[in-house]
Fold this sequence. Notes:
The chain is an alpha/beta fold. About 30% of the residues lie in helices and about 25% in strands. The protein has one domain: Rossmann fold (3-Layer(aba) Sandwich), CATH 3.40.50. The chain has helices spanning about 15-25, 45-50, 70-80, 100-105, 130-135, 180-200, and strands spanning about 5-10, 30-40, 55-60, 85-90, 115-120, 145-155, 165-170, 205-210, 210-215. Helix 4 links the parallel strand 4 and strand 5 (about 115-120). The longest helix has 24 residues, at about 180-200. The radius of gyration is 17 Å and the shape is globular. It binds 5-O-phosphono-beta-D-ribofuranosylamine. 5-O-phosphono-beta-D-ribofuranosylamine binds near residues 11, 15, 17, 118 and 119.
Amino acid sequence: MSGKLRLAVFVSGGGTNLQSIIDSCHQESYPAEIAVVVSNKSKAYGLQRAEQAGIPTEIVAHKDFNSRQEHETEIIRRLEKHSVDLVVLAGYMRVVTDVLLKRFFNHARKLPGVINIHPADTRAYQGAHGYEYAMGQLEQHPERLAQTKITVHFVDSGVDTGPIVRQVPVPIEAGDTLDDLRARGLKVEHQLYPEVIRLYAEGRLMLNDNVVTIIVGAV
Ligand code: GRF
């Protein structure tokens, strides 16, 4: 055993965040490794990224199940052989339930075992289309913001409501298109997500009363 934190990265699409985690895991000193990539979509490009990197994949189509809980029960069954410590949602377009959250709760660290990245401030906006939200391009949110806040958070049973681990502001410049903002934001996502996984792996995260503390210095 390498002693590294073993990740299951869940994707539904292109998987640029997955790629940033794959690249981080290639550094010998990085304290995590990807045990498996899971997708609910057989055509997700993220699966090809995993295969190119020699990482096992599990495809579990949600359409084959009658409920979220049954879908997750099958995912959990498939994950047993991969010895997963932490579930990393990376563009996984499914709301998860207590079935998954309970299975991966990390009792030793007293921490949730599922994390997610969101392109907006989860206190202000939850759900899909976070960059469109920040650009004021959603019918219900026509106001363009001065910045978005890339957020990594622990997952709870709500939609993007779990305790925030870290946020990084990304400015929205005059003249930006949605693609400009997305490109700028994804660059930040690709740095931030591997950094948070490192903090988790190094035992630097604590959660008390729904508030995350990051331990700096020796642990
Ligand atoms: C990212 O913007 C992430 O914040 C959001 O979904 C997108 C996934 O992109 N949850 P990718 O598949 O990692 O390229």
